[in-house]
Amino acid sequence: MHRSILLSLAASAAAAPLAKRSGTVYGFDVSDYQPNVNMQAAYNSGLRFVFIKATQGTDYISPSFNSQYTDATNAGFIRGGYHYADGTGDGSQEADYFLAHGGGWSDDGITLPGMLDLEADCKSVSWIQTFSDTYHSRTGVYPILYSSPSWWEQCTGNSDAFVNTNPLFMACYNSEPCTPQGDWPYYTFWQYNDDNANGGDSDQFNGDYAQLQAIARG
């Protein structure tokens, strides 16, 4: 995740009061750019959740996903897969591809709902809605939506269409959280840098560990 969309974030949105939950849980996200991440060492360092890239578009499966996901499970992480939206298919097609290759969800307390990574070329509100509805119809939960405030404003007109259904994963490289986009009252996850000591990007969950487990239970 990240790269192109995050360069201007520090200046794009000032920190603002949030409807914040109690506590903070630290985690990270990884992709095939970090094929040899040591999940046990990451867990031992205090991280408790991880998102792992599974798919992109309708024609790419991360070659690292299966091993990373297994290692994360064995290390004790709450974990989930994510899908990088690139527009090679419509929303339904990309959701189906994600679900067929690691993006599923189960009510086991350790599997996070799949995350839709929105940072490449703009996707319309309709495209995102179709992906979200397809994922929900197949799993019973709505996917987490990842974007920066600037991407969301530019590509969706700062739509509030998902506030009541989809958790927000906000990309904001700043010392304090940005103002959540799209009228979300708070972020659920916050990606705050791309230099985690264990590899990948550094993330926070806006709540305590029990609340993180509740997200995993749907």
UniProtKB/TrEMBL annotation:
Pfam families: Glyco_hydro_25. GO terms for molecular function: lysozyme activity. InterPro entries: GH, Glyco_hydro_25, Glyco_hydro_fam25_subgr. The lineage of its organism: Eukaryota, Fungi, Dikarya, Ascomycota, Pezizomycotina. This is N,O-diacetylmuramidase. Its main location: secreted. Keywords: Antimicrobial, Bacteriolytic enzyme, Disulfide bond, Glycosidase, Hydrolase, Secreted, Signal. Its EC number is 3.2.1.17. It catalyses: Hydrolysis of (1->4)-beta-linkages between N-acetylmuramic acid and N-acetyl-D-glucosamine residues in a peptidoglycan and between N-acetyl-D-glucosamine residues in chitodextrins. The keyword Ribonucleoprotein does not apply. It is found in: Secreted. It comes from Neohortaea acidophila. GO terms for biological process: carbohydrate catabolic process; cell wall macromolecule catabolic process; defense response to bacterium; killing of cells of another organism; peptidoglycan catabolic process. The keyword Metal-binding does not apply. GO terms for cellular component: extracellular region. Residues 1-15 form the signal peptide. Belongs to the glycosyl hydrolase 25 family.
